[in-house]
Write a sequence for this structure.
């Protein structure tokens, strides 16, 4: 079994392209992934930038967020080429892909259907796990913590820059590895569990609002 921790960065399609946006809201401009073995030991990593085809310039907001510029992607391969490179890199039929939230598989479904209509992306989705949801389920809360906050909760220094696909994959992998030891995971995350667990209402209305008891009707 190969465990692949995965992250994407995307560039939005212009809002002026109303019909196109109904099919595809953005294009992948970076893939980052970490490969773990049976025992969740790191084997390899994968990173590539991708030249967008439908919007030739990188959004200024995306450049500010990710550091990815037009110059970085100008000589890179397109999505189809790099997606196939990624799947070849996995190099196994027995694999699971983990991402922080389901946004990445939603993006792949849209982009593969648009650019690779013959590719069975629904079959790929069967290998997918939303690690953010699994994380929330394990600690018993449903607040969808950001990756940065989840990493901070485990007192693990966030490696690299946030919104770098490979750095986000590396940090997500650190959480996945910790989750394999449930006892250690719960102990590490106890402050987060305590923060979000419901507080019991131990006081009566009269205790909380004594002034109401003195009102005459």
């Amino acid at each position: 079994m190969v465990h692949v921790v995965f992250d994407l960065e995307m560039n939005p399609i212009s809002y002026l392209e109303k019909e196109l946006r109904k099919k595809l809201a953005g294009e992948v401009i970076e893939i980052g992934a970490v490969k773990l073995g049976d025992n969740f030991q790191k084997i390899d990593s994968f990173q590539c930038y991708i030249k967008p085809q439908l919007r030739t310039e990188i959004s200024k907001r995306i450049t500010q967020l990710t550091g990815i510029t037009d110059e970085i992607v100008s000589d890179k391969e397109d999505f189809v080429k790099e997606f196939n490179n990624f799947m070849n890199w996995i190099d196994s039929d027995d694999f699971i892909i983990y991402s922080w939230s389901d946004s990445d598989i939603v993006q792949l479904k849209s982009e593969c259907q648009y650019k690779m209509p013959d590719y069975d992306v629904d079959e790929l989705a069967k290998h997918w796990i939303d690690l953010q949801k699994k994380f929330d389920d394990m600690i018993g809360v449903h607040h969808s913590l950001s990756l940065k906050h989840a990493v901070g909760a485990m007192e693990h220094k966030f490696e690299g820059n946030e919104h770098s696909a490979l750095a986000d994959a590396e940090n997500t992998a650190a959480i996945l590895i910790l989750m394999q030891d449930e006892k250690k995971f719960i102990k590490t995350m106890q402050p987060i569990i305590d923060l979000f667990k419901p507080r019991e209402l131990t006081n009566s209305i009269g205790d909380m609002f004594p002034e109401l008891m003195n009102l005459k009707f």
In short: The first helix runs from residue 18 to 21.
